[in-house]
Design goal:
It is a single chain. With 821 residues, the chain is of the alpha+beta class. Among the domains are: 145 residues; 114 residues, Sandwich (Immunoglobulin-like). The chain is 52% helix and 10% strand. It has 33 helices and 14 strands. The strands form 4 sheets. The chain has a 6-stranded mixed β-sheet. A 4-stranded antiparallel β-sheet has the order 5-10-13-14, with helices on one face. Strand 13 and strand 14 form a beta hairpin. Helix 2 runs antiparallel to helix 3, helix 8 runs antiparallel to helix 9 and helix 21 runs antiparallel to helix 22. The longest helix has 20 residues. The protein is elongated, with a radius of gyration of 36 Å. The N and C termini lie far apart (75 Å).
Length: 821
Amino acid sequence: MPAPIRLRELIRTIRTARTQAEEREMIQKECAAIRSSFREEDNTYRCRNVAKLLYMHMLGYPAHFGQLECLKLIASQKFTDKRIGYLGAMLLLDERQDVHLLMTNCIKNDLNHSTQYVQGLALCTLGCMGSSEMCRDLAGEVEKLLKTSNSYLRKKAALCAVHVIRKVPELMEMFLPATKNLLNEKNHGVLHTSVVLLTEMCERSPDMLAHFRKNEKLVPQLVRILKNLIMSGYSPEHDVSGISDPFLQVRILRLLRILGRNDDDSSEAMNDILAQVATNTETSKNVGNAILYETVLTIMDIKSESGLRVLAINILGRFLLNNDKNIRYVALTSLLKTVQTDHNAVQRHRSTIVDCLKDLDVSIKRRAMELSFALVNGNNVRGMMKELLYFLDSCEPEFKADCASGIFLAAEKYAPSKRWHIDTIMRVLTTAGSYVRDDAVPNLIQLITNSVEMHAYTVQRLYKAILGDYSQQPLVQVASWCIGEYGDLLVSGQCEEEEPIQVTEDEVLDILESVLISNMSASVTRGYALTAIMKLSTRFTCTVNRIKKVVSIYGSSIDVELQQRAVEYNALFKKYDHMRPALLERMPVMEKVTTNGPTEIVQTNGETETAVLETKPPHSGLQPGSQANDLLDLLGGNDITPVIPTAPTSKPASAGGELLDLLGDLNLTGSPVSAPAPQISQPPFLLDGLSSQPLFNDIAAGIPSITAYNKNGLKIDFSFERSNTYPSVTVITIQASNSTELDMTDFVFQAAVPKTFQLQLLSPSSSVIPAFNSGTITQVIKVLNPQKQQLRMRIKLTYNHKGSAMQDLAEVNNFPPQSWQ
C-alpha cells in the first residue's frame, strides 16, 4: 500500500478546493484512506494519519473513529507518537465517553516517566479532560509532582491540581502541604500557576480561606511578591510594554481581593501595596490600565481606607477620559457599582460622566445615563435634569423610554418645587410623550390635583402645549383631563405665575372637539376628551347647548366605548339634570398609595398595555368591584377572577356620593374604563382573616414548596398551608429574594386566578428586596377553591432596579396536587 500523503500536502490540497462540495469530497476520500490504514494496523503511518484526522476535526468534520488510535499512540514508546496521541485525546475525547478511562493506566505510567516532557504531556491531558474517576486515581501522582524541584513540572502540576479540585473538591486537603513552599519559587511560571491554585482553593472552601489568612500568613507573601514586581528593574523575559509580568500582577490582585473581603486584618496588610500599585503603574498602555482596573476592584471589595477608595474612584475617573471605548465602558460600569457606597467621591466626576452622554457608542451612552440618574440628588437636581432633558431630546428612540422613566422618578424624589416638578414632566411629555411609561398619565394627574395653587398655571400651560399638535397622546390625555377639571380657571384668566391668555369657552370646546375627530387620537384619548367636554357643562355657562349637541352626536359612534359614555351622559342631561352639578364636581385632593392594590389598563398611543396605578386614579369614581375587574384585562383572557382588595377603597368625598345608587346602570367615571364588574361574593374568611394572627390552628400535612419565578436575579418561592377544617382554602406564602448586587426597590406583586377561584392578597412585609440574598420579602395569598380544581395563576411583578423600572408577567401552572386536591 502506497504511503499516505503528509499533513502539509493535505492542507495544501484542501485549500485548493473552490466549493464546499469539492472540499467535502476531498475529506471523504482521505477519511476512507485513513480508515483502511487503521484496519490494516499500519503502525508506521498511524501518527501521520491521526495528525491529518485532527486537522479535519478542526475543520468541523467527524473524526470519532480515530479515538482508539489515539490510545494506541499514547501507549507507544516514541515521544513523537505520544505527543500526537495526547493531543488527539484532548481534542477527540471527553469524560462523557467511556473510552477515556482506558488511558488512565497510560497516564499513570507517563506521570512517573523519566523524561520531563512525557510527564508534561500526561499532566496537560489530565488537566484538560480528566474525569472525576481519573482524578481520584491519579491525584497522588499529581501531588507528588507538585513537590518536585523541577519548575517545568511544578507549573504544569499546579494547573492539573486546579482541575482535580474542580472535579473532586474533597481532594483539596491533599494538596495543602504542597502549597506551603510554592510562593517561595523564583520562576514566574510556577508563581503564576501557584496563585491560580491558591485562588481556586480559597474560592471553593471557606475553611481553606480562613487557614491561608491565619495560619499560612498568605497576604504578606503575596504583598512581598507584588512589591518585588513593581520595584524590579527591566527584565526582558517578563516585560510587557514596560511593565514586569502584568499577568502575575493581575492574578495576585485577584487573590488579595478574595483574602481581604470581610477581613479587617488582611485588608490592612494590603492597603499600602495597593496604594503603591495604583500610583506607580504606567497608564499610557493598555497593560497598565488592566492592572489598575484589577487594583480598583480589589480596593472596592476589601475593607480599605477611605482615602484609598477615593484614589480608586479617581482612577476610574481618569479612565473616562481615555480614548479607548472599552476602558470608558469598564469605568462607567465600575462607578455604577460603587456609587451607592462612595457617592460623594463619584460626584466629583459628574461633569465627565455627563459628557459621556454625548458619546457615539450606544453601550457607553446607556451606562452613562444609568450612572447620571444614580448621581441625582437634592443639590444638583436642576442641573442634572437640564442635561438629561437635553439628552432625551437628542437620544436614539431605544433610550427614550428608560430616560423618561428615570426623569419621572428623580423629579418625584428630588423636586425643589411643585411648579418645577410639573414643568419637568410636561417637558418630557412634550418631547418624548410616545415613549413614557404607562403610569405617567395617572401620576401626573395626581400631582396636578394635589397642587391646588398651581391649577390655573397648569391648565394654561397644557392648553398652549396641545394647540394644533395631538401627536403626543399622553400629553393630550393629561391636557384633556385638566381642561375638564379646571376649564373655568382657563377661561377666567386667573393665572398669576405667568401672563394669562384670553380664551373663550368656544375656543376651549374647539380644541376638545378637534381631539375627538383627530386621526392621531387613540380611543382612550377620545374618551378623555368626551368626559372633559361633559365636565365643562358644569364649569361653562354659555355653551351648555353646544355640549349637549356634541354629546348626543357621539351617542351613535362606531366606537363602543365612546357610544356608551355619550348615552350615559345624555341620560344625565335628560333624566338626572338636577344631579349633574354634584356628580361632575371637581376631584378632591388624593393621597398616593403604594400597596399591592388594584391595577388598571392604561393605553399609550392606542396600544393597550398594563401598568400598576400607584395612585388612586383621579379621573375615576370606580367602585372596588370595578377596580378589581380591571385586573381581568391586565392578565388577559376572560376566565380570570380578580384580586379582592385587602382594604376597602374609599369613595371620593363628593356632595353627589349619596346619589350614586340612584344611577345604578350609569358609569360615572371621568376616564375610559371597561364595563362594570359583576358583584363578587366573598366568603366570610376572606373578610375576617386580615389580621396578623395565624389563619389555621389545624394545619394539614406538609405541602412541597415551588419556585414560581426565577429571572434576572429575582426569585419567587411559594410555600403552602391548608386547613383540615377549611379544605377549600389554601394559604400561599410568597418569598421574594434578590441575588444581584443592588437592592430592588418599590417591589409590587400581583396575581389573578380563574373565575372558579377567589383570591386575596395581604400586604407585603416590605417593598425593598435586599441584594446578595441577604433578606426576603414575604406576602400572604389566600385562595378559595370550592370545586377542588387544578390551581393556575398569573402573576405580575414590578420593581425598580439599577435605576430602571422593571416589569414582567408570568404564569404559574406547577402547583403541587396537595395544594388544591
